[in-house]
Amino acid sequence: MKLAKEIVQSIQEAKNIVITSHKSPDGDSIGSSLGMLRFIRALGQDATICHPDACPSFLEWLKDGDEIVDFDADQDRVISLMDNADLIFCLDYNGSGRMGKDMGGVLLAADGKKIMIDHHPYPEDIFELSASHPEVCSTSQLIIELMVQSGNEKLLSQSIGTPLYLGIVTDTGSFRFSSVTARTHVLIGKLIENGVEQANVHENTFNHNRLDQMKLRGYAIAEKLEVLADEELAILSLSEMDLERFNYIKGDTEGLVNVALSIEGVSVAILMTEKDGKVKMSFRSMGSIVVNKFAADNFDGGGHMNAAGGISFLSLEETIEKVKKLAPTYFGKTHA
Ligand code: 5GP
Ligand code: MN
């Protein structure tokens, strides 16, 4: 972890601290933000979390009251907080565009010192301090390192550790991906020693699925999944009508793309969900098959080697056709 002592010194010197993260928050962005907020409070300082949009419902249980202000719901407050901040943390993202155009613009215009703590490759050069660690599984792991390496391990508690544990679990598919290292487990051990109840985290996060959500997932797999054998590619596509039929709410398709990836003979999976005339794309791959380049080259996206995202402005059908046309160039055995 780069810069741990400098980062903590910046916290101690700051008067108004804001913590930001990327659009469409996931477990790691929510977890690292809450862990950071509570660490800052344990240091005797305060901060406000400003996210571009709302926390998905399956992660609501992590919050203790009103810990997150969201730009979609309260733009004026977020703009004023960011304008007045002398220190802005940028967690789990590597460039202003990841917050969406509007809030990204607010970040660029803000005068406060910007500190990025992140694990995505190719960070933009817009931060005063940049703790960029693409080799680490999650930003949440980096927040634990920040505490340990700045000499503040003694401040670890159940309240700080629980969201950080959750962030690691969700970004690693429950400790499954190759990004998990011995160090991840050493740090997890510290969390458990300090009161984190891992069985409760899993129960609260993964065992409260709504019936409609389960039906949507079943329908997606039974009716909307296509496998291209030569390219070892699975495509899952859900139209706006499909989502409406099962009363979709944010978070309902979380992890679904990994189910497609688990099919025998599949090494790349794509989930497409249609919303407001656009198609949100999620890419996952195994081993040496690289999806962030595919996302960046063709779908205005990016991310990690084996987990990326992007967007298509074509119709859902046209997007599927575009993927199928491109697939032989990028995927299949010859590319591994
Ligand atoms: P997900 O499929 O879970 O939405 O995203 C997987 C990963 O891809 C995220 O951790 C993030 O790194 C990246 N990602 C998702 N959407 C985008 C996007 O629109 N642009 C970029 N650059 N990265 C994205
Ligand atoms: Mn992350």
Q: What order do the helices and strands come in, and which of them pair?
A:
Blueprint: H1 4-13, E1 17-21, H2 27-42, E2 48-51, E3 68-70, H3 75-84, E4 87-91, H4 101-109, E5 113-118, E6 129-132, H5 139-149, H6 158-171, H7 182-193, H8 198-206, H9 211-223, E7 225-228, E8 233-238, H10 240-245, H11 256-261, E9 268-275, E10 278-285, H12 292-298, E11 302-303, E12 307-312, H13 316-330
CATH fold label of the largest domain: inorganic pyrophosphatase (n-terminal core)
Per DSSP, what share of the residues sits in E-state strands of 2 or more residues? 15-25%
Average residue-wise pLDDT: 96
**Number of DSSP helices?**
13
Proportion of residues in helical segments: 40-55%
Distinct ligands: guanosine-5'-monophosphate, manganese (II) ion
Structural class: alpha/beta
**CATH class categorisation of the largest domain:** Alpha Beta
Question: Which short descriptors sum up this protein?
Answer:
single chain; 336 residues; inorganic pyrophosphatase (n-terminal core); Diaminopimelate Epimerase, Chain A, domain 1; 2 domains; six-stranded parallel β-sheet; six-stranded mixed β-sheet; 12 strands; 18% strand
Describe the protein in words.
This protein is of the alpha/beta class and about 325 residues long. The chain folds into 2 domains: about 5-205, Alpha-Beta Complex (inorganic pyrophosphatase (n-terminal core)), CATH 3.90.1640; about 210-330, Diaminopimelate Epimerase, Chain A, domain 1 (Roll). About 40% of the residues lie in helices and about 20% in strands. It contains 13 helices and 12 strands. It has helices at about 5-15, 25-40, 75-85, 100-110, 140-150, 160-170, 180-195, 200-205, 210-225, 240-245, 255-260, 290-300, 315-330, and strands at about 15-20, 50, 70, 85-90, 115-120, 130, 225-230, 235-240, 270-275, 280-285, 300-305, 305-310. The strands form 2 sheets. A 6-stranded parallel sheet has the order 3-2-1-4-5-6, with helices on both faces. Strands 7-8-9-10-12-11 form a 6-stranded mixed sheet. Helix 1 (about 5-15) crosses helix 5. The longest helix has 16 residues, at about 25-40. Guanosine-5'-monophosphate binds next to strand 11 and strand 12.
